[in-house]
Amino acid sequence: MNRRIEHKWRLREIMAARGLNNISDLLPLLTDRGITLSDSQIYRLVGQKPERMSLALLGAITDALECSVEDLCHFEAVSSNSRLRRTVGSTAEPISLNETIRPRRARIRPTDR
């Protein structure tokens, strides 16, 4: 049984709770703490779930928004004991490819002349 760590990135929610509705509101807060990022980097940071980031950036975000890492990112260990994956919201059982109906094998015959 394998376990993998999933995380939910809540930066946009925390920003909205603090009254910061635009990425341009976060930029000066990070600049005051010595972090210089471009507009596109801030946009990706707020809008997407980051796979990796520096601890200096994480510390600056938590200090600027007066929150903890646990508030910003929710971690959950998920067990994955099979290699079959389900889509999000899917309640159907996974289909085993060995037991499904396969196409009929084509038979190639010589042409009659």
From TrEMBL:
InterPro entries tied to this protein: Cro/C1-type_HTH
Superkingdom: Bacteria
Domain spans labelled HTH cro/C1-type: 10-76
Name of this chain's protein: Helix-turn-helix transcriptional regulator
